[in-house]
């Protein structure tokens, strides 16, 4: 056992022996070269994707820390991953190795109070425990589910959708309102419960959305619920997709956003879901030597971006297994979809719709209760994403209800047992949108809208309009980008657009072209 002393000086002397590079695995990991303003939550977030963090000792005077994992296996997974992908916090590459010490025993000295409070908060979220020993100043206890967010150093535009993507990493976001007050861009973000809000605040407060700018300052709001009247670029109630848009001015379009982001040195406007594997969102990951992050520039990543799919694949290969217990998004990949229209819904239609937000592995419509179905995604982050975008949307006249299922996998029927085609295995489907590492589809994930984006149209084709039923179509615009023909189609409602996407995605246009249909961020 190792007890820490009450000052950073004594701590440093006690742990000085770890500067050499021991290769013997240990649950305790020695973390070096941390920035001066490092906080406890950031150090804990380095370990969260790999297992439970059981103890923390901060040596701020030395820019070092010791992190204790719950098992040696999770510590090995963590060291193995970070040996190939160097973590970067505020432009500081962070280095880590196994400690000589087999476990940490911390006392109640003043410099450890914050570390223990931060650990307590994370563990409360991981276990779902509400009975916490409150530490003064740690922001614990029963808090509002509404967070007040101020974005400082706003050098590049931050949209409601960007905030939704970042905050959805920690749980389902119910409502967002954005506004400008005292010349500052601010937002109110409502989760379903205060515990999720606490976890998001702990991990995101002080982080940059893009490198060196757009800093998040987060506090708990005095409000306990938000009243959203319009769904537009300033406010959104994700539980009420039927709300009117009001008269909000349209926000910067996707091209303007992309151009702004690409002109910024070292900044990438990748969706915070880019990796879609639940990696820690609280630090940038630098490109490691020999590790190709496909489709990404060699510069630093957006601070709240997650590693590209190639990095995720490398990590998974190095890890064999990733325990993502600390993240709601890294949990169960199976959703229960209820309130379906049994006359119209098929496994194929659910596969196409949910496939907009991730790779659907299996679908089962329940034999005795055909208004219910189980949909299994390739990971928990994709399930979270599909749930946040599709819950409450109307499909064939009925509002979908989407929740995480208690099942962890969808069972296929036993051989010789026919289930009327109600269970389908799509694990080898060629229609998966996200199986290619670094797929650009990760940055084109948008909520259901009445405008559809059509691509993979043959240059010679003029009859795509004929594919869509004329009575539903309001506007149709063709454009060509990089020798590829695309189109935007505006339909009468979001529900019509959803049904059209299901019906016409992968429609055979001839010349070996199958139509690709997605929801568009733009309106015509």
UniProtKB/TrEMBL annotation:
Residues 27-111, 147-223, 333-407 form the RRM domain. One of its GO terms (molecular function) is RNA binding. PROSITE patterns: RRM. The keyword Transmembrane helix applies. Pfam families: RRM_5, RRM_8. Keywords: Acetylation, Activator, Isopeptide bond, Membrane, mRNA processing, mRNA splicing, Nucleus, Phosphoprotein, Repeat, Repressor, RNA-binding, Transmembrane, Transmembrane helix, Ubl conjugation. CDD domains: RRM1_PTBP1, RRM2_PTBP1_like, RRM3_PTBP1. The keyword RNA-binding applies. It is found in: Nucleus. The chain crosses the membrane at residues 464-480. One of its GO terms (biological process) is RNA splicing. GO terms for cellular component: nucleus. Signal peptide: none annotated. PANTHER family: MATRIN 3/NUCLEAR PROTEIN 220-RELATED (PTHR15592). This is Polypyrimidine tract-binding protein 1. It comes from Sinocyclocheilus rhinocerous. The lineage of its organism: Eukaryota, Metazoa, Chordata, Craniata, Vertebrata. The gene is ptbp1a.
């Amino acid at each position: 056992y190792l007890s820490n002393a009450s000052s950073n000086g004594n701590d440093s002397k006690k742990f000085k022996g770890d500067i050499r590079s021991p290769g013997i695995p240990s649950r305790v990991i020695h973390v070096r070269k941390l920035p001066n303003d490092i906080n406890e939550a950031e150090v804990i977030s380095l370990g969260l994707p790999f297992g439970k963090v059981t103890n923390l000792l901060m040596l701020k005077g030395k820019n070092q820390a010791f992190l204790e994992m719950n098992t040696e296996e999770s510590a090995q997974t963590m060291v193995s991953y970070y040996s190939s992908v160097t973590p970067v916090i505020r432009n500081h590459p962070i280095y880590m190795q196994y400690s000589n010490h087999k476990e940490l025993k911390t006392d109640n000295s003043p410099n450890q109070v914050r570390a223990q409070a931060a650990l307590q908060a994370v563990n409360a979220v991981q276990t779902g425990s509400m009975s916490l020993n409150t530490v003064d100043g740690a922001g614990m206890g029963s808090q509002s589910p509404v967070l007040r967010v101020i974005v400082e150093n706003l050098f590049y535009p931050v949209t409601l959708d960007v905030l939704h993507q970042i905050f959805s990493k920690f749980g389902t976001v119910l409502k967002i309102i954005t506004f400008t007050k005292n010349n500052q861009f601010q937002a109110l973000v409502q989760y379903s419960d205060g515990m999720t809000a606490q976890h998001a605040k702990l991990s995101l407060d002080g982080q940059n959305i893009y490198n060196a700018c757009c800093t998040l300052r987060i506090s708990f709001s005095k409000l306990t619920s938000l009243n959203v009247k319009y769904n537009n670029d300033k406010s959104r109630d994700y539980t009420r997709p039927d709300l009117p848009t009001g008269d909000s001015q349209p926000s910067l379009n996707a091209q303007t956003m992309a151009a702004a982001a690409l002109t910024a040195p070292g900044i990438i406007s990748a969706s915070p879901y880019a990796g879609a594997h639940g990696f820690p969102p609280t630090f940038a990951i630098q490109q490691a030597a020999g590790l190709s992050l496909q489709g990404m520039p060699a510069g630093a990543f957006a601070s709240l971006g997650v590693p590209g799919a190639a990095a995720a694949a490398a990590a998974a290969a190095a890890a064999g297994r990733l325990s993502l217990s600390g993240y709601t998004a890294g949990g169960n990949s199976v959703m229960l979809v209820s309130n379906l229209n049994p006359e119209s819904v098929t496994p194929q239609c659910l596969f196409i719709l949910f496939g907009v937000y991730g790779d659907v592995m299996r679908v089962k419509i329940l034999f005795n209760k055909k208004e219910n179905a189980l949909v299994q995604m390739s990971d928990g982050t994709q399930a979270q994403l599909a749930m946040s975008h599709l819950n409450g949307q109307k499909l064939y006249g009925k509002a979908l209800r989407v929740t995480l299922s208690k099942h962890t996998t969808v069972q296929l029927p036993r051989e010789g047992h026919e289930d009327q085609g109600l269970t389908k295995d799509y694990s080898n489907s060629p229609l998966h949108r996200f199986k290619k590492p670094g797929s650009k589809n990760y940055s084109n994930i948008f909520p259901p809208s009445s405008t559809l984006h059509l691509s993979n149209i043959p240059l010679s084709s003029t009859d795509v309009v004929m594919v869509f039923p004329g009575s539903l179509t309001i506007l149709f615009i063709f454009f060509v980008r990089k020798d590829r023909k695309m189109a935007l189609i505006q339909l009468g409602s979001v529900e019509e657009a959803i049904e059209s996407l299901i019906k016409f995605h992968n429609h055979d246009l001839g010349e070996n072209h199958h139509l690709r249909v997605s929801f568009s961020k733009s309106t015509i």
